[in-house]
Amino acid sequence: MTRMPADGSCAAQTAPLSATRLRSALAGQDSPSGRGGFWSDVRVLAETGSTNEAALALARAGAPEGLVIAAETQTAGRGRQGRSWVSIPGASLTFSVLLRPVSVPQAALGWVPLLAGVAVATALRAATGSDARLKWPNDVLIHDAKLAGILAEQTRDAVVVGIGINVLGGKDDLPVPTATSLELHGAGGIDRTELLAGILREVERWYRLWRGTRAGDPDACGLRPEYLRLSATVGQPVVVQLPGGQSLAGTAADVDGAGRLLVHPDGGDPVPVSAGDVIHVR
Questions:
Q1: Beta-sheet pairing, 41-48 with 67-74
Q2: Would the N or C end of the chain have less CB density within 10 A of its end CB?
Q3: pLDDT over 90 at 173, yes or no
Q4: What pLDDT is recorded for position 3?
Q5: Taking the C-alpha atoms of 246, 247, 253 and 259 in order, what is their torsion angle to the nearest 10 degrees?
Q6: How far apart, in whole angstroms, are the C-alpha atoms of residue 52 and residue 77?
């Protein structure tokens, strides 16, 4: 996220998101249903409280998968564990997608945010040449600084995935010293519409592959090997701050078939972690 300056302005802005261009860029993709592209309902809003909340409401009302809601400004956006995500108009790329992986068992749905991370990192690498990497479970990093966050929320058989990417922002604009932006890496002028289209193509590609396997097997579709290739966490000494105030120190050894991080404490057996904040120990 980016911090709102005192006067509510932003030093620079990118071109506005274009729903027309976005729909056109995605329309050519094939759909098994024969009814056009996978992303069948693409909406760009000037302002909303939270793209995830808007998508969740539509999911509960029966909206099919393939919905995309992007917003120039979020006034009540949020990240994991209730953290806020405030976006300055034109300075970020904030959007949510609606998926309904009904063929995938509940135990495998932990791979949804990891799949989204692979899609975001892959698209960013292609569009900017950056060394985008993944911090388990929901961050995209460049040079160990947080560029993007991912939040997956489930309602019945639907999963809404929200993604926020810092496009503009100098050191003084970002909320914490560990955050970064595309601007700080020479890509602040990127076309956000093209970037969003690229991310959505990658989400669709990996989602189709993963959903098409038996029981959402991340190895059979190549998702887990690709995640491990892009991971900045696996192989690193870490401290995981667990729910309830406990912590776990050790080496991040792997990510298992359920999307859990396997942490190997010194002198102990690997511990599967399904939720927690990871600190990379340098």
A1: parallel
A2: C
A3: no
A4: 41
A5: 40
A6: 8
Is 60 exceeded by the pLDDT of residue 80?
A: no
Q: Which fold has domain 19-228?
A: BirA Bifunctional Protein; domain 2 (3.30.930)
Amino acid 69 reads: I
Strands laid side by side in the 92-99 sheet: 41-48, 67-74, 92-99, 158-166, 145-155, 139-142, 132-135
Kindly tell me if the per-residue pLDDT of 34 is higher than 60: no
Using DSSP, state whether 194 is helix, strand or coil. Answer: helix
What is the pTM assigned to this prediction? 0.91
Q: In whole angstroms, what is the distance from residue 159 CA to residue 157 CA?
A: 7
pLDDT in tens, 104-156: 999 999 999 999 999 999 999 999 999 999 999 999 999 999 999 999 999 99
> Cα separation of 132 and 148, whole Å?
10
Topology of the domain covering 234-280: SH3 type barrels. (2.30.30)
Q: Which residues make beta-bridge pairs with 273?
A: 261
Please report the sign of the dihedral spanned by the C-alpha atoms of residue 122, residue 128, residue 134, residue 138: negative
Please determine, for residue 93, whether its predicted confidence score (pLDDT) is greater than 70: yes
- Residue 239 confidence (pLDDT) above 70: yes
Q: Where are the domains of the chain?
A: 19-228, 234-280
Query: Tell me, what's the pLDDT at 85?
Result: 56
**Tokens at 276, concatenated:** 């927690």
**What's the CA angle centered on 112, arms 156 and 54, to 5 degrees?**
55
* pLDDT band with cut points at 50, 70 and 90 for residue 78: low
- Average pLDDT estimate for 19-37: 72
Task: Read off the amino acid at residue 124.
Answer: L
| List of residues 6+ apart from 53 with CB closer than 8 A | 76
